[in-house]
Specification:
Structural class: mainly alpha
Helix content: 25-40%
Radius of gyration: 38 Å
Number of helices: 14
Strand content: under 5%
Strand order of the largest sheet: 1-4
């Protein structure tokens, strides 16, 4: 009997529970709908929700990275406005390693190492400590590898031999030209002598002779110039006349760089500091970098990887010419075929080069005038009759605009004949 009474009571309880749950669910839905309606109409809430979305959309519409100017930290450029500081602000003379990079008697006080990190951190702290690691390209300005464990730096440019043989030094252009006034040194160089045993330069104490008297003797004039300039990679008595091995069957007249084409020039401070030493007291002193090193604008720097003048880097690569000394000399040439080591060119240096007007920092002052190749009845390449080489080449160009002047030039022979060439001809042969 009790069972009959329990069953109806349990069903009633179950029904009441279902009703309570339904009421709760309905109440929850009503509250949710009210909240949604309020959030859509309340200005404060709407602004708080919409603001982040607007910021996200704004950031996506910024100019793409490709259109924003990029800074290349790979190579330090002294021409950058922020880098035009006094030399001693970054470079310390002498650098602590000067006794280590050159051994024994060859060592002398010099700047032979890159500046320390403190010189860079003042402006580039962000690049050094950005996020988890430094900007690797800024490290590459001095370091071979941009890792905390690899602290090896590239050879400093004053260490000419090791720098020129490094991957960077083979092709890196120089930011500076060397302001070397020949007219102030020619007399002094006539007094310099080289020790036969050590090769070191020394100066005689007597200056009794006139500083320019040596110019009257071509042999003495050449000897004075040879203080700094010797024939580069001379052929001498060898039968091999080419700088690199030419291809078989090289056509007659085809250009292939020959030995003895160029002259050497000082590559580091060793010759300069012979006189301008810290102990010698001759101005400018070694610590005065700016006295000789003059900043060259970017567009005027000699490039070892870009065609310029009579220099063709693709042709140089095809010839297997890779050493910096050859590439640098060739890239400064207007007539690549000229060869110093050739009997007709065995003249006094002053016959072609106007020493008193030469400043190594001014490329235009280093160029040799076309008139030095002959004329005035001396024969050579310019003659008072139409038979001279320059006479003939210009006559052929006048007859055929596609004719290339290849007697002296490699690339420049395709360009229009400059006024300097036509004006060098005798008046009767200019047409």
């Amino acid at each position: 009997m009790s069972y009959k009474h329990v069953a109806p009571d349990g069903a009633l309880i179950h029904k009441q529970a279902l009703r309570g749950r339904a009421a709760t669910l309905i109440l929850f839905l009503v509250v949710a709908l009210l909240w949604l309606a309020t959030s859509r109409t309340t200005p404060t809430t709407a602004g708080a929700l919409a603001a982040p979305q607007r910021r996200t959309r704004t950031s996506r519409t910024r100019a793409p990275a490709a259109t924003r100017p990029r800074v290349d930290y790979t190579n330090f450029d002294h021409a950058t406005a922020q880098h035009r500081n006094a030399c001693e602000q970054c470079h310390k003379f002498p650098s602590p390693n000067w006794k280590d990079v050159r051994k024994g008697d060859a060592a002398f006080p010099d700047v032979a190492e890159y500046p320390e990190h403190s010189s860079c951190l003042e402006c580039h702290r962000t690049q050094f400590f950005a996020r988890e690691r430094p900007q690797p390209k800024i490290c590459a300005s001095c370091h071979v590898g941009a890792t905390p464990r690899n602290t090896v730096r590239w050879p400093f440019p004053t260490l000419a031999e090791s720098y020129a043989s490094s991957p960077r030094g083979r092709v890196a252009p120089s930011d500076f030209g060397v302001s070397f006034p020949h007219d102030k040194h020619e007399g002094l160089f006539s007094e310099l002598q080289r020790d036969a045993g050590t090769g070191a330069l020394f100066m005689r104490a007597s200056f009794a002779k006139s500083a320019r008297a040596w110019q009257d003797d071509p042999a003495k004039a050449n000897a004075a110039c040879a203080t700094c300039h010797q024939t580069f990679q001379p052929q001498n008595d060898s039968e091999d006349e080419y700088a690199t091995k030419p291809p078989k069957g090289l056509a007659e007249g085809a250009f292939w760089l020959k030995k003895g084409a160029f002259k050497t020039a000082p590559r580091d401070h060793s010759t300069c500091f012979t006189c301008h030493s810290a102990d010698g007291g001759m101005e400018p002193m070694p610590a005065n970098c700016a006295a000789c090193h003059k900043l060259i604008p970017k567009g005027e720097r000699l490039s070892l990887t870009r065609a310029r003048g009579d220099f063709d880097p693709k042709l140089a690569a095809a010839m297997g010419v890779t050493d910096r000394a050859t590439l640098r000399r060739w890239s400064g040439r207007e007539a690549a075929r000229f060869r110093h080591e050739w009997p007709p060119h065995d003249l006094a240096c002053t016959d072609c080069h106007k020493v008193t007007q030469m400043n190594a920092a001014e490329p235009s002052a280093r160029r040799v005038a076309v008139a030095s190749c002959g004329g005035a009845g001396t024969g050579c390449h310019i003659e008072p009759t139409p038979d001279g080489i320059l006479n003939t080449e210009i006559a052929q160009r006048n007859a055929n605009p596609k004719f290339e002047c290849v007697k002296c030039h490699v690339a420049n022979g395709r360009l229009p004949v400059p006024a300097s060439h036509t004006s060098a001809l005798p008046p009767a042969t200019r047409k």
